């Protein structure tokens, strides 16, 4: 499992997909989410604005990520 550090209260699913290089721009998020299975805490999600918080698990393209709050993480 990959750890993904955030230094804010949350990150949106669209921002997360871009930060993890699953998409190239925020505009691609909507299409990516409808064409690919993305699970947040085991539930399929299609909302690019879905908020991800510390402790959430995201599964996308055979990779699993664990969201961790770290005040020293780069934004």
Characterise this structure.
The structure is a single chain. Helices cover 19% and strands 36% of the residues. By secondary structure, the protein is an alpha+beta fold. Strand 3 and strand 4 (43-44) form a beta hairpin. The mean pLDDT is 94.
Search tags:
75 residues, alpha+beta, Structural Genomics Hypothetical 15.5 Kd Protein In mrcA-pckA Intergenic Region, Chain A, 5-stranded mixed β-sheet, two-stranded antiparallel ribbon, 2 helices, 7 strands
Secondary-structure map with pairings?
Blueprint: E1 2-6, E2 10-12, H1 13-19, H2 29-35, E3 38-40, E4 43-44, E5 51-53, E6 57-60, E7 63-69
Overall residue-averaged pLDDT value: 94
CATH superfamily: RNA-binding S4 domain
Q: Sketch the major β-sheet.
A: 5 strands, mixed
- Major sheet: arrangement of strands: 1-7-6-3-4
What would you say about this model in short?
With 75 residues, this protein is an alpha+beta fold.
């Amino acid at each position: 499992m990959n750890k993904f550090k955030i230094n804010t209260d949350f990150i949106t699913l669209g921002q997360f997909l871009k930060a993890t290089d699953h998409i190239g721009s925020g505009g691609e998020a909507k299409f990516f989410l409808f064409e690919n299975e993305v699970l947040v805490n085991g539930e399929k999600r299609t909302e690019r604005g879905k908020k991800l918080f510390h402790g959430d698990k995201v599964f996308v393209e055979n990779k699993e990520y664990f969201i961790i709050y770290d005040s020293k993480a780069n934004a």
